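Supplementary Methods, section 5.1.

A reviewer requested that the exact input to the structure prediction be made available. We therefore reproduce it here, unchanged from the version used in the analyses.
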Amino acid sequence: MPETGSWQVRWQSAQRSARAAGDAALRRWRAAPRRTRQTWRLTAVSAATGLAVAGGAVAVSGPWDAGQRTAERAAAAGSGSGSGGERHGASTDPVRSAPPVLSALGGSAPGGPGRAGAPLPTGAGLAEVLAPLLKDPALGPLRTASVRDVAAGREVFGVRADEPATPASTVKLAVAVAALSALGPDHRIATTVVDGTGKSGKAGKAGQAGEARDGGDAGDTGKHRIILVGGGDPTLTARAPKPGPAADRPANLRTLAEDTARALKQRGMTTVTLGYDTSAYSGPDQHPIGPNENIAPVSALMADEARLDDSEFGTAPRDAAPAVAAARAFAGQLRERGITVDGDPAAAHAPRQAGEIATVRSLPLAALVERMLTHSDNDIAEGLARQTAIAAGKPASFAGAGTAVRDALAARHLPLTGAVFADGSGLDRDDRVSAGLLSRLLLDASSDRHPELRSVVTGLPVAGFTGTLSGRYPDKSSGAGTVRAKTGTLTGVNTLAGTVVDADGRQLVFAFMTSGTTDPQGAQKALDTLASAVAECGCR
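The structure derived from this sequence is encoded token-by-token as follows.
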């Protein structure tokens, strides 16, 4: 046996000392009251946040960090806007202090998921805490729940966890996982201008007939024709870019017009006619709920979610013909850059093998998922469901998207008994998922084995600080800054599904669903109390 060197002796001694110190710290952690442990966790998070902020001032870690774009993350931490689903009102509360900042970064409290010394919660321990809370009279007749331990990978508490229920906006978790599985987190959606001088396709298509009638037929006028081809980017904008790195901005029609005008001038062309192609999507463009300020008609070509005001999230009046509006905005941008556009833009199909003139691409799919979940953005959700359908070779319609989402989840061996995906946004009351499915989606997204799903976790609103949870946890609430969850709200339906680190340092995912509620505020508070109880619990 070789002789042990002095450096090895010192190393082994240091290891023994570190283990002893760690064991002592763990004993103190377990012996401390739960409230004291919560304080220690928040203090540690605040300290870590200070180090992160200081480090960020002197080093650039690249456009991505922990699965989330740095600019998107900063916007999420500072937005305070509710949005998207029914009754998600915007918040004007100021951004609060350090603990939630690390949550927005995707960090975790001391102990981390699956720390070897952290005890696994028991079903009996969780039932003792959660069962009385599930009897809250503010909850509806149907009450389902599922809590899973991330490190153990199994359910530790469940109540009717396999029973399908109306998910409202928590169905967006299923859409996010399906889209990321089908396309990957780095996928970008293109909006393209092509040469349309060749044989003209027929204007319009099923489901877009209203837009075709508004725009007319591009026809063959003898002038050079270009066609704006929508690829389904739900974050395409026509507004002036915001300050910040260009790589963190959504695709912009202004950029596309600049590149198109330059290319046309290089070819000696300064007068064109403009067509627009929405054929990437099919079927009805109107959501089954009808015209509604929660969602625009679903089109493969639209800018700023067809909003008729300057809002970015939440409810807003919408243009009834998003593609027409986007094409007209693009024509205006071309004119500002010295290109004469004869007549109004008209619906058309791009010729096969049409030559590309210019292209802009969306932010990576992971960034779109984060934005969708943080703000419960219905337009992004419907767009990503259709992108999933396109990837699967299915019709990019409500029906085709629902089939594609289900197939993508089935390929991951997720529990889909009774599941129905009637839309991507959760506005359709025919949607059905179980609490067990929601918790499994979050389990996969939280696992180190599935880094492609990381944005599902980093996009979750932080309780009391960001997105649709910004106004739901008041100051000093036990769950503020520690609960991260996707909300779901329709009249009579309240759901909440997310992740916490419990008082013992175990990462848990949860889903709580209720239907038939008559007190929406009371039901929301009851669900928030359940999530906070999971966070505070060291349930053994």
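The radius of gyration is 25 Å. These observations are discussed further in the main text.
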